[in-house]
Amino acid sequence: MTNTPLDDLKQAQKSNIIADERFQGWKSRLSRTDAGSVRYNYQNIKLIFDNDPNLAKLMAFDAFAGMEVMTKKPVWNRPNVSSEKTRIPFTDDDEVQVRNYIRETYGMTGDNTKLFADVIKGKALEQVFNPVISHLNECRKHWDANSELIHSYNAIWG
């Protein structure tokens, strides 16, 4: 069986895709359509969140406030957020910005917002923290274990 020019072209494209994947690292693990565009699915979105430097470690869950927060300044324009601020509340507008960023950066098409919400919630729950407990633990590190504090508390409150 002889190859047609179309078969040769498809084989050459496959070879180039395979060669390109060796140099793309994690991006080579993104599943693609037959046309070569990035598939819109949970695994791809999660892989992007795990590896894209602008999205990796972006999300956390504040157990005290009971909400998803961003732990660093996002790549999209967010009014009134400095680069030093952490624990930035994650809003519906931010979810739209994440979807737009992924669409523009990776050429992913689709509009299943629940898929994004599931990945975002999952990524946030991988990093749960409670700022109150963290603060109390910091205080404990600095406490000299002197019982004067306990005696003062008892004197004031009985």
Task: Supply database-style keywords.
158 residues; alpha+beta; 2 domains; four-stranded mixed beta sheet; 6 helices; elongated
Overview of this structure, please?
This protein has 2 domains: 28 residues; 100 residues, no CATH class. Helix content is 51%, strand content 8%. Strands 3-2-1-4 form a 4-stranded mixed sheet. Strand 1 and strand 2 form a beta hairpin. Helix 2 crosses helix 4. It is α+β, with helices and mostly antiparallel strands and 158 residues long.
How many domain modules? 2
Strand order of the largest sheet: 3-2-1-4
Share in helix = 40-55%
The arrangement of helices and strands along the chain is HHEEEHHEHH
- Average pLDDT confidence is 81
Low-confidence stretches: 16-23
> Looking at the chains present, what oligomeric state does this protein adopt?
single chain
Number of strands: 4
**Measured distance between first and last alpha carbons:** 96 Å
Given helix and strand content, the structural type is: alpha+beta
Topology:
Layout: H1 5-24, H2 42-51, E1 59-62, E2 67-70, E3 88-89, H3 92-106, H4 113-125, E4 128-129, H5 131-142, H6 148-157
Parallel strand pairs: 1-4
Antiparallel strand pairs: 1-2, 2-3
Helix pairs in contact: 2-4
In short:
This protein is of the alpha+beta class.
